[in-house]
């Protein structure tokens, strides 16, 4: 049941009409009782009218409807800013929003798992709930994917019942954007995430006509200055809410073993694919990050050309994080190859739920602390597997398991498992950017 946003306005008016109906009923009752005696009818009329005005003042039903309206109507942003506070008014409600499952349309658990992780991404959710994406659509002819994604997110967060919904309209749009998702084959959740974010970004890119960016030489600049210029150049072409949230900048340094010259390159990243370190003992997420940022020797056929020697030289290459994204997506490379899954590593990788400190991976020792809020899990083998999601509700802070149409509470101690595949971390306010 996918609702159109206009219906929320109607819900609001219907509540108003309920009050009117009660008033009308009061008048009819009043005239009936008038036959018998004036005094009891006056008492009843008084009771009914106080009921009506009481309802208009603060009855739960009425307030809930206006909240829903505030969440996703087409009101100007300023009005919505005010009602945003009411969006989180029921932290202890049993009927907390966002706890709606997604029906499996046939091997679509990979999609459902990622959709629930994104639905619990606080800023992206609010972007959809407030319809802010509409102002970013830039009069684009094709914005169907973003519209369906926003509609789905709105339904997950404003649905009156917790009954599972069908993501079929959304699926139609994602497979138009990325035909590889046509049909009902099991797919890789991380690949799906990349395609989805890319598709959403393209539709809400604030840059409608990408300018041709001339090749500039920044080599005379300091690394920090070069990084800033490269980032601004990226934003000249790619600038959206999706970029604001998910994109970071990676620094790769290449050092010549002959002359010691170090050249640096700065590239945007949407997620980091981390190799799982092979160790007989416990493997931690930090181990995987250390392996990812470990100095790599490029020799033989891989020898790059040193800019100073003007010849191919043996070099060392190293990654560090130049710019930390608000939302850090970490993909554990459990599959030897994403498309043709030949083997799966079921290694248990321990990861912190709170305070993942990434300072040691920063280019300039800046402070970056992240908290986990969602995990896409893969159980089973490369041949037959199933995806689920563990997400922390951004309104209540409680963790839930999303298994297609089923949503159930869980303890945060159960979040870590050897099924964890894609981790979603959000930057804390204590991080210095
Ligand atoms: Zn050199």
UniProtKB/TrEMBL annotation:
Q: Which residues form the USP domain?
A: 100-428
Q: Name one GO molecular function term.
A: metal ion binding
This enzyme catalyses: Thiol-dependent hydrolysis of ester, thioester, amide, peptide and isopeptide bonds formed by the C-terminal Gly of ubiquitin (a 76-residue protein attached to proteins as an intracellular targeting signal)
* Entry annotated with the keyword Hydrolase: yes
One GO CC term of this entry? Answer: perinuclear region of cytoplasm
What Gene Ontology terms for biological process does this UniProt record contain?
protein deubiquitination; proteolysis; rhythmic process
InterPro entries hit by this protein? Papain-like_cys_pep_sf, Peptidase_C19_UCH, Ub_carboxyl-term_hydrolase, USP, USP_CS
Which Pfam families does the UniProt record give? UCH
**Record PANTHER family:** UBIQUITIN CARBOXYL-TERMINAL HYDROLASE (PTHR21646)
What is stated as this protein's family in its record?
Belongs to the peptidase C19 family. USP2 subfamily.
Put simply, this protein is called: Ubiquitin carboxyl-terminal hydrolase
């Amino acid at each position: 049941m996918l609702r159109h946003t206009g219906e929320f306005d109607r819900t609001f008016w219907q509540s108003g009409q309920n009050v009117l109906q009660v008033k009308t009923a009061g008048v009819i009752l009043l005239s009936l009782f008038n036959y018998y005696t004036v005094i009891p009818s006056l008492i009843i009329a008084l009771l009914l009218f106080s009921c009506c005005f009481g309802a208009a003042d603060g009855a739960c039903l009425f307030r809930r409807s206006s909240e829903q309206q505030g969440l996703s109507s087409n009101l100007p942003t300023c009005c919505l800013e005010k009602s945003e506070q009411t969006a989180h008014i029921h932290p202890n409600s049993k009927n907390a929003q966002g706890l709606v499952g997604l029906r499996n349309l046939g091997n679509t658990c990979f999609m459902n798992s990622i959709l629930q992780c994104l639905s619990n991404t606080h800023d992206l959710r609010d972007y959809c709930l407030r319809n802010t994406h509409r102002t970013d659509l830039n009069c684009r002819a094709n914005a169907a994917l973003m519209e369906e994604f926003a509609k789905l997110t709105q339904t997950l967060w404003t649905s009156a019942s917790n009954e599972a919904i069908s993501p079929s309209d959304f699926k139609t749009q994602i497979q138009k954007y990325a035909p590889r998702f046509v049909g009902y084959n099991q797919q890789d959740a991380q690949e799906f995430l990349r395609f989805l974010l890319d598709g959403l970004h393209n539709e809400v890119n604030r840059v409608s006509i990408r300018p041709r960016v001339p090749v500039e030489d920044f080599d005379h600049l300091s690394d920090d200055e070069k990084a800033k210029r490269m980032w601004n150049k990226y934003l000249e072409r790619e600038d959206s809410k999706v970029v604001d949230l998910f994109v970071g900048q990676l620094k790769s340094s290449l050092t010549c073993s002959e002359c010691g010259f170090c050249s640096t390159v700065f590239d945007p990243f949407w997620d980091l694919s981390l190799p799982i370190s092979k160790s007989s003992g416990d493997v931690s997420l930090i181990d995987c990050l250390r392996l990812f940022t470990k100095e790599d020797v490029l020799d033989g056929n891989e020898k790059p050309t040193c800019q100073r020697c003007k010849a191919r030289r043996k070099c060392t290459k190293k990654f560090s994080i130049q710019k930390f994204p608000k939302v850090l997506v970490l993909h554990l490379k459990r599959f030897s190859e994403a498309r043709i899954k030949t083997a799966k590593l079921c290694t248990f990788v321990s990861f912190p739920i709170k305070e993942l400190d990434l300072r040691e991976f920063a280019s300039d020792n800046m402070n970056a602390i992240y908290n986990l809020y969602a995990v896409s899990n893969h159980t089973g083998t490369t041949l037959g597997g199933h995806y689920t999601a563990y997400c922390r509700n951004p309104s209540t802070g409680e963790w839930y398991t999303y298994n297609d149409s089923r949503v159930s509470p869980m303890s945060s101690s159960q979040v870590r498992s050897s099924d964890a595949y894609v981790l979603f971390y959000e930057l804390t306010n204590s991080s210095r950017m």
